[in-house]
Amino acid sequence: MRKTKAKKRPLLPDPKFNDQLVTRFVNNLMLDGKKSIAFRIFYDALDVVENKKGDNEKTSLEIWKDALTNVMPHVEVRSRRIGGANFQIPMPIRADRKISMAMKWLIKYAKARNDKSMALKLAAEIIAASKEEGAAFKKKTDTHKMAEANKAFSHFKF
Q1: Residue 157: pLDDT above 70?
Q2: Residue 142 and residue 148: Cα distance in Å, rounded?
Q3: Residue 158 clears pLDDT 70, i.e. is over it
Q4: By residue range, what is the domain housing residue 139?
Q5: Chain-centre distance for alpha carbon 7
Q6: Could you tell me if residue 92 is inside a domain?
Q7: Known Gene3D superfamilies for this protein (predicted)?
Q8: Which of 1, 72, 98, 147 is deepest in the core (most CB within 10 A)?
């Protein structure tokens, strides 16, 4: 590579939970630079999760973190051209990429849901992912199945 690698900028923790992971999620959720609206959507979604969770001892933030870890993929397939043919080669994923993929999938499939507001959609997707169901979790299992199916090509490392 010709250029130096860009250094990671430190993220400020969010005001309510004092967690950098929440800020990272809100940054992915944000549209057109409207961060305060993104924070409101996220906090409203966690309030809905808090109301729907029932009597178990976990907080809504812990449920959200469980949902994030349930959606996190461990392997992905990458395309590589070898001898005129394209092969899908399974590769392990870096830790920061795992987290960003999980966040993006949660937000994408929450947007695709049918509900009144984005906060309700996000809350429904978080609850589903924490129970290991829903579209975001299905995306993870599909990714893992694809990697498993192409395991024979894993010796073609990059």
Answers
A1: no
A2: 10
A3: no
A4: 35-50+60-156
A5: 23
A6: yes
A7: Ribosomal protein S7 domain
A8: 147
C-alpha closest to that of 158 among 101, 110, 98, 87: 87
Show the tokens assigned to 113: 């849901």
CB 143 within 8 A of CB 76: yes
Q: What is the pLDDT of residues 38-51, one digit of tens each?
A: 999 999 999 999 99
User: In a 10 Å sphere around its CB, with 0-12 CB exposed, 13-18 middle and 19+ buried, how is residue 58 labelled?
Assistant: middle
Hey, which residues does 77 pair with through a beta bridge? 90
Q: What is the pLDDT of residues 30-80, one digit of tens each?
A: 999 999 999 999 999 999 999 988 767 788 999 999 999 999 999 998 888
Among candidates 29, 36, 59, which has minimal Cα distance to 47? Answer: 59
Q: Which residues lie across from 57 on neighbouring strands?
A: none
- Token duo for residue 35: 């961060």
Rounded CA-CA distance 33/9 in Å is 17
Report the SS3 class of residue 14: coil
In a domain, 87, yes or no: yes
Q: Looking at residue 40, which CATH number applies to its domain?
A: 1.10.455.10
Cα 32 off chain centre by = 20
Q: Which residues pair with 79 in a beta bridge?
A: 88
Tens-digit pLDDT profile for residues 118-130? 999 999 999 999 9
